[in-house]
Specification:
two-stranded antiparallel sheet, 48% helix, 2 domains, Aminoglycoside 3'-phosphotransferase, Chain: A, domain 2, 12% strand, five-stranded antiparallel beta sheet, disordered C terminus, 344 residues, 11 helices, alpha+beta, Phosphorylase Kinase, domain 1
Length: 344
């Protein structure tokens, strides 16, 4: 295997793979990156290998310590697979150095494949997998999605979206209004039934595969509000569906989840309200994360996805009296100070 001395992590990864995959040779090429420090490489094998006899390619993950920790990935992968959800098999691991060798789930994400003709079938598969994962939930297996974590996520909005991206400072009244909305949203979120939560269950992390879907990027999974992953899926930051489609999928989820024993209210309206309020938390968080990715990490591409997230947030806040102050704040921010561009 040819090494790359200008990239010591990649060289070390290649040497590790040499020891695992010998005597087979392989080529290593970038597969993908994400919003973290993790990198993924596709190893194309010259011949079948006993580690995965039917595979011609495998995925090597480079997750450099101390910025990343592979242990949660391995743990959650096992939980998903135990629940009959298609997470990648972990074929080899060096947790201290941050290397994993994984099953390759292919190259076609839901985002790349989705269209009006196939969306219904693909989303039904995704809902079935989500229900299986939630039905396997048990307390104590994953970190809690508690008040402290939910609140830290909300704080990304004033710190990164408002202050850094918009270049604005909230006055005392605006801060008080935002605090009131945060308190109301968190009270709703924490009152929901709790289940395993993938935490980024959307079109970029779902692969069109057999069995479908393949599920990726689950290392930050937690135990928390039942509607969170449903919101991630149906109010995706990268693909937009009309409310009729969202409602149809949400009803089907509600029926499947109740049949699987997940503790949802017998009134679908209750689920839908919780879904919308959970969405407000996620959308506020995502605006903050996208701003941070832009201004701290130099990943300006995420800015183009902000308008869709903002449309979701505005629509939900416009439907509930208790969330109206958030809409007033957004109006003030947008009318008085247009967003500034990224500078590096």
């Amino acid at each position: 295997m040819q090494t790359h001395s200008a990239d010591p992590r990649r060289e070390a990864l290649a040497q590790w793979l040499d020891g695992i995959l010998a005597p087979a040779s392989f080529t290593l090429a970038p597969a993908s990156e994400d919003a973290s420090f993790r990198r993924y490489f596709r190893a194309t094998l010259s011949a079948p290998h006993p580690i995965a006899p039917s595979a011609s390619t495998l995925i090597a993950m480079d997750a450099p310590p101390p910025m990343e920790n592979c242990r949660p990935f391995v743990h959650v992968a096992a939980l998903l697979r135990d629940a009959s959800v298609h997470a990648p098999a972990v074929h080899a691991q060096d947790l201290d150095r941050g290397f994993l060798l994984l099953e390759d789930l292919g190259t076609t994400t839901y985002l790349a494949k989705l269209d009006r003709g196939n969306a219904h079938a693909l989303y039904l598969d995704a809902l079935d997998a989500l229900v299986r994962f939630q039905a396997a939930s048990r307390e104590g297996e994953l970190p809690p999605y508690d008040h402290a974590l939910l609140r830290r996520e909300l704080d990304l909005f004033p710190d990164w979206y408002v202050a850094r991206h918009l270049g604005r400072t909230l006055d005392a009244g605006q801060r008080a209004s935002l605090e009131d909305v945060f308190a109301r949203v968190l009270a709703n979120n924490l009152a929901q039934p709790r289940v395993f939560v993938h935490r980024d269950y959307h079109s970029r992390n779902l692969m069109a595969s057999a069995p479908n879907p393949g599920v990726l990027d689950f290392q930050d999974a937690v135990y928390g509000p039942v509607t969170y992953d449903l919101v991630s899926l149906l109010r995706d930051a990268y693909v937009e569906w009309d409310e009729e489609f969202q409602l149809d999928c949400a009803v089907r989820y509600w029926e499947k989840a109740r049949a699987a024993g997940i503790a949802l209210d017998a009134d679908f309206g209750s689920l839908w309200r919780d879904f919308e309020w959970m969405g407000v938390q996620r959308q506020i968080k995502v605006l903050g994360i996208f701003a941070r990715l832009c201004h701290r990490d130099g990943k300006a591409a995420y800015v183009k996805d902000m308008p869709l997230v903002m449309r979701y947030l505005r629509a939900a806040c416009g439907r509930y009296r208790d969330l109206a102050p958030m809409l007033v704040l957004l109006d003030a921010l947008e009318d008085r100070a247009p967003a500034v561009g990224c500078t590096f």
